[in-house]
Structure formats: structure tokens, C-alpha cells
UniProtKB/TrEMBL annotation:
Pathway(s) where this gene product acts: Pyrimidine metabolism; UMP biosynthesis via de novo pathway; UMP from orotate: step 2/2
PANTHER family: OROTIDINE 5'-PHOSPHATE DECARBOXYLASE
Official protein name in the record: Orotidine 5'-phosphate decarboxylase
Gene label: pyrF
InterPro entries assigned: Aldolase_TIM (IPR013785), OMPdecase (IPR014732), OMPdecase_AS (IPR018089), OMPdecase_bac (IPR047596), OMPdeCOase_dom (IPR001754), RibuloseP-bd_barrel (IPR011060)
Active-site feature positions: D66 (for ompdecase activity), K68 (for ompdecase activity), K68 (proton donor), D71 (for ompdecase activity)
CDD domains: OMP_decarboxylase_like (cd04725)
A biological process term (GO) from this entry: 'de novo' UMP biosynthetic process
Amino acid sequence: MSAPIPDPRDRLIVALDLPSVGAAESIVSRLGDTATFYKIGYELGFAGGLGFARELIAEGKKVFIDFKLHDIGNTVARGVASLAALGASFATVHAYPQTMRAAMEGKGASPLRILAVTVLTSYDDADLDEAGYRADVASTVAARVAQAREIGVDGIVCAPTDAAKVRGLLGAKGAIVTPGVRPDGAATGDQKRVATPFAAIRAGADHLVVGRPILASPDPAAAARAVQAEVARALSAQVPSA
């Protein structure tokens, strides 16, 4: 007998990268029960999105606040404490040691999970070189994951192309969340290190962040279900028979 397959809806995080709460409400309404987890970043967050996050949480949805915090320790800790009080499930910080430590202090005993951002999926080696980094993407990701694991951060945000290596460095307990996920045939946009939903899950990702392929679809619910079908196929291949 096979073990039960996790609900693929919980693995898809729909990125509400939209300019207004009204636009976000429309997408959420069209998705209905198809989606259970939403990400709110700068664009919507600065347009009333935190209030909308409270509404989503009150309706039983999970919310990922993706502000990629990075500041002096006291500011990060207090900001994270506010996100914990909001009821968010995930929040991101940049994977600098001082910032990660402050975020873990700020979340306290709350269930909020802190995710450390290694290298943005829109960056490649040339971008890091231009920014003055001495190491390439692979070396930078590895160093930041090692620091995050030592500090005890709850998970890592990384490109799907880095997920297998990150899983090996992080171990089984930490969460891996991957943006830059594109179904077959979808435009990559400004992302440079992308993978399909199936490939990302097989590489070790726990949650996939998908925005434009769902938001721009004439049928967002169908687009979300297509991603979830790939997730289910990947999860099925990972579940051993009893």
C-alpha cells in the first residue's frame, strides 16, 4: 500500500504581484478553493496588501509576506514581530547572518517561518560580479545556506535550479521555497534560473511560488490546477510503497 500523497494545493503559493487590492480580490475570487496559499510582495503590500493579508488569513488562507527584510538587527526583529502578530505563515529576509539572527529573535515562539533569500532568481554570475561579489552564484548560495542552517532559520528561498544542492546542504528538516517556476511553454520574463513545477519538486523544493503564469492566464484556476497536477505527479514519484 502506498503512503498518502500530500495535498498539492498546499505546495503552490500564488504570487499576488498586482497593483491594487481590488485586482488581488478578483484573482482570489476566481481561484476559489483551487488556491490555499498566497504571497504578498512590495507591489501589493505598499498598496494596502497587509490589510488584505489579514482578510485572507481570517478566511483560512495562508499568507507569505515577501518583503526580503534587511536592516539593522533591532529594526528587523521588530518588523518580524509585527508580521508574526499579523498571522503570516512565511516571511523573507536576506540571508545575511546578522539579519537572520534578528529575524529568528523577532518571531519568538510564534509559528511564523523565516525564509532566508540566498541569491535572487533574476541574478546570474555576471550580475553578482557587477555588484562586487567575489564568488559566483553557486558558491554564494552554498555559503548562505550553511550560515542559515547554523543559525536555525526555518527555510531557504532559492532558484529551482539550486534546489537539489540546497537540499543536500540544508538537510531534510528545512523548507525550500522556489520562485522562478515556469510551466512548459510559459515565458520566463526577467527570470534567469527557472524550472518546471515537476522538476522543482523532484529537486527537493517544498513550495513553488508562481505568479505571472497564473495571473496572466484567461483561466487562473485552470492554470493553478495545471501546476498542481505537475506537483502531484512529482510527489507521487517520491512516495515509497508500504
